[in-house]
Amino acid sequence: MKIHRLAAVAAVLGMLGFGQPTLAQDAPKAITIATEGAYAPWNFTNADGKLDGLEIDLANDLCARMKVECTIIAQDWDGLIPSLKVGKFDVIMAGMFITKKRLETIDFTQPYAVDPGSFAVAKDSDLGKLGLSGEKFNLDDEAASMAAIEKLKPLLKGKVVGVQAATAMLEFVKKYFGDTVEIREYKTTEQHDLDLAAGRIDALFAQQTALATTLAKPEFADYTVAGPGFVGGLFGLGTGAGLRKEDTKLKDMLNKAIDEAIADGTIKRISEKWVKTDVTPVK
Amino acid sequence: MIDLAFFLEIIPALLAGLPLTLQLAASSISIGFIMALLLALAQQGNHRFVVWPIRAFVAVFRGTPLLVQIFLIYYGLGQFRPTLQAIGLWWLFREPYWCAIIALSLNTAAYGSEILRGAIQGVPRGLVEAATASGMSRYLTLRLVVLPLALRQAIPSYSNEIILMVKGTSLASIITLVEVTGIAQGLISQTYRAVEVFVTAGAIYLTLNFTIISALNALEAWLTPYRARV
Amino acid sequence: MTYILHFLGFGQGGWGAALLVASGVTLALSVLGFLLGAVFGALSAGGRLSRRLVPAGLAKAYGTVFRGIPDLLTIYLLYYGGSIALTQIGKFFGSAGFVGLPTFATGVLAIGIISGAYQGEVYRGAYQAVDLGQFDACKALGLSGFQSLRLVVVPQLMRHALPGLGNVWQLVLKDSALISVIGLVELMRQAQIGAGSTREPFIFYIAAAGLYFVIAVVTASVFRYGEARAWRGMVHA
Q1: Which residues are in the ABC transmembrane type-1 domain (chain C) (predicted)?
Q2: Are the beta carbons of B72 and C84 separated by less than 8 Å?
Q3: What is the DSSP code (8-state) at residue A22?
Q4: pLDDT score of A14
Q5: What gap in Å lies between CA A41 and CA C193, rounded to an integer?
Q6: What does the pLDDT read at residue A17?
Q7: In chain C, where does DSSP find H-type helix?
Q8: Can you tell me the mean pLDDT for B118-128?
Q9: pLDDT at residue B130 greater than cutoff 90
Q10: pLDDT bracket for residue C79 (50, 70, 90)
Q11: Are residues A126 and A226 in the same domain?
Q12: pLDDT the model gives residue C13
């Protein structure tokens, strides 16, 4: 009876399906890349269910360079890191910033894009009237960035700011504006976009490219990206591909491919196609 | 092994959401109860044009998931901001807190009205006839005979409904309200320790439920002393 | 009106087909979850009715915990924690890689665990409602425990259980909407996708509500038919 039961349990587990073996030091022939699928223009889902966007194009390019077969799947944002750690897929390319906090649990390749975070507000609000200043402040440069932040505070006092949960964006707003504004956390950027259009929140804080894509839509005619952009500091080095810490060979392969893509201008070309600016990181 | 330090870290974080959970639960249960009572009483008159809309309301709110109701009221009605602003109600639907209370109250009103309707009909007809024979008006009969008995009868079923409402407050986390379940989800996705967070958050809810059930049991015992076994 | 039909219809840019497919997923999710819950419920009822302390205690704990904790919390536990637990179990049995549950299976498991807690109570009450004389008759006829359950008790138990099970089914149908938070594309999620894509949340959530309502009404009548058949020839209490 006992042996039968053990066999039954093992059979059930077997039926659940075993995924890829752990990669560690072998060069993988096929990998699975996960993205969010709800973060235009970096990664989004078309009406017919297919994944598309800047990172999809980049992923296909990197995989071609590495001569590895890639499958790209979509997964909810807040489940990306836990699922990566458990082994559901091998790489995360979802507009994820390389932050110190995340580096504690997973590893990242070098950044393949740098895109500052900014506020989006109504055109006729205090901050909106200033418009996009085009300045970029690196949070590592404390003096300059704190000065810029202090200038922004009175313009945002008492406003309601929407941010996507579990992002570096949220950490930024909490850390520097936590006492000035009311923060609302949303599961997806789509939800905070809906609430901005509905007037429930006064401002968004997200990456400039994502904001630009959103605000191009007709219902956001009265809104604009405003103020300076922020990089560095708790935003880390930029957007990179997330990996498990033990997959060192895969990390080397990806870093090499990213180097090549930066060198021959592929990243510049892909980013100008999708966001009309060059997001290549400066080496 | 059990990481006591971790538990001690997350307990205050989770408890921070308890006031909001309690506020949502208490408000929606009270508002819902009053609505349920009015709806149940309105159906006693048997007027077609009163009963049918009420039965439709009850069917819709019992037949669709609470999540859909919350999304409809929050995002769906948010689409009609200009209209709502024009009739001066936008301030109500602008805040997720009020949207959550509206959705929860309507939901519990629908379920509650069925419970109370059954309880009112369960009052023995003879008692009502005796009251009328003694010259009591409809209102007096209701106040002195029907309602005390009906409400007492309804306590077991209604306590179920109250527990369901407390659980329902967890859905408010989906429209940005920071109550216990919302905090739990944030903690899990930050620390990846689902089991510990679940156990702690679960313990909070179970303690809450236990308190509510004990209070209601005490209330029932106080109202029906003749049933107590010495 | 045509505006609404444009979005919900089946033509180009119409989401009607997607919503119907998603309703199918909701039904499949609910049915499988309910059946899994029947298994857990039967075990739980068995435990509660047992005279031994351990099964009775475990069953009571199972029922109290999963009926008292918000279903959303249970779903988060299985979604975030489930893969980790399964991979550990898999490693114990010698598997090298990831043992994962796709979202659909996670949803079925979550609904199974939650509805099992409620179904356990229903089966327990139904078991106790079966006339004691039936049990005596089984013993008198010399039927074994299993035989008396299969031939006598369970058929009669189901008669008493059906109304309660109908209620649990409605609960399962509504809980299936919560599975949308872990990314499974069932009706609620599909409505969200449509709403986000077209910026018409009201139309989509009303459509979703309508579809849930229709499913609820149709399946409720299935249970009523089942009850009528179960009580045929008997005098209803």
Answers
A1: 19-224
A2: no
A3: P
A4: 46
A5: 17
A6: 42
A7: 2-8, 16-49, 53-68, 71-76, 82-92, 103-129, 132-141, 145-148, 154-175, 187-198, 201-230
A8: 89
A9: yes
A10: confident
A11: yes
A12: 59
What digits encode the pLDDT tens for the residues C95-107? 555 566 778 989 9
Mutate to test the interface with A, among B189, B190, B191, B193 (most CBs of A within 10 A): B189
| Best residue in B67, B80, B179 for a mutation probing chain C (most C CBs within 10 Å) | B67
Task: List all chains that touch chain A, counting a touch as 3 or more CB pairs closer than 8 Å.
Answer: B, C
> What domain range is A214 assigned to?
117-235
Residue A26 has pLDDT above 80, yes or no: no
If residue A60 lies in a helix (H) or strand (E), which one and from where to where? helix A54-66
Question: Which range among A133-137, B66-70, B226-230, C83-87 shows the weakest confidence by mean pLDDT?
Answer: B226-230
B178–A79 CB contact, under 8 Å = no
Residue B113 · residue B189 · CB < 8 Å = no
Are residue A231 and residue A122 in the same domain, yes or no?
Answer: yes
- Give pLDDT, residue C10: 62
C73 touches B at CB < 8 Å: yes
Q: Is B194 on the interface with C (CB under 8 A)?
A: yes
| Residue A95 one-letter amino acid | G
- pLDDT reading at B150 higher than 80: yes
Candidates C83, C96, C183; nearest CB to A86: C83
What's the Cα-to-Cα distance from A255 to each of A87, A90, A249, rounded to whole Å?
Answer: 21, 15, 10
Q: What's the pLDDT tens digit per position in B173-184? A: 988 899 999 999
For A221, residues 6+ apart whose C-beta sits below 8 A from its C-beta are: none
Q: How confident is the model over A223-262, as pLDDT tens digits?
A: 888 888 888 888 888 899 999 988 888 899 999 999 988 8
Is residue A50 domain-shared with residue A184, that is, in the same domain? Answer: no
Q: How many CB atoms lie within 10 A of CB A175?
A: 12
Residue of A nearest to B81 (CA): A198
Cα–Cα distances in Å, from B12 out to B8, B22, B41, B180, B197? 7, 16, 44, 11, 12
Mean pLDDT across chain A, nearest whole number? 83
The CATH number for A47's domain is 3.40.190.10
CATH architecture type of domain B4-227: Orthogonal Bundle (1.10)
CB contact under 8 A, A20 and C97: yes
Q: Judge if A99 and A130 occupy the same domain.
A: no
Cβ pair C188:B68 closer than 8 A: yes
B-chain CB neighbours of A204 within 8 Å are none
């209070």: which residue's tokens?
A: B215
With a cut of 60, say whether residue A207 has pLDDT above it: yes
Q: Tell me the per-residue pLDDT of C116-143, one tens digit each, with 9 for 90 and over.
A: 999 999 999 888 888 889 889 998 999 8
Structure-block tokens of residue A151: 């200038």
**B119: Cα separation from own chain's centroid:** 17
Q: Is C192 a residue whose pLDDT tops 70? A: yes
Classify C2-8+38-230 by CATH class. mainly alpha
Same domain? For A170 and A244 the reply is no
Query: Do residue A151 and residue A86 come from a single domain?
Result: no
- Which parts of chain A are beta strand (E)? 30-35, 38-39, 43-45, 51-52, 69-74, 91-92, 107-108, 117-122, 132-138, 160-164, 182-186, 203-207, 223-231, 242-243
Instruction: Annotate B190-228 with DSSP letters as a single string.
Output: HH--HHHHHHHHHHHHHHHHHHHHHHHHHHHHHH-GGG-
For residue A265, is it left (φ>0), alpha (ψ between -120 and 50) or beta? left
pLDDT in tens, B85-96: 888 888 888 889
Same structural domain for residues A121 and A229?
yes
Return the domain boundaries, chain B: 4-227
Strands A30-35 and A69-74: parallel
Instruction: Enumerate residues 36 to 95 of chain A having a beta carbon within 8 A of any beta carbon in chain C.
Output: 38, 45, 47, 75-76, 79, 82-83, 86-88
Q: For residue B147, how many C-alpha atoms fall within 13 Å in the half-sphere facing its CB?
A: 12
Question: How many structural domains comprise chain A?
Answer: 2
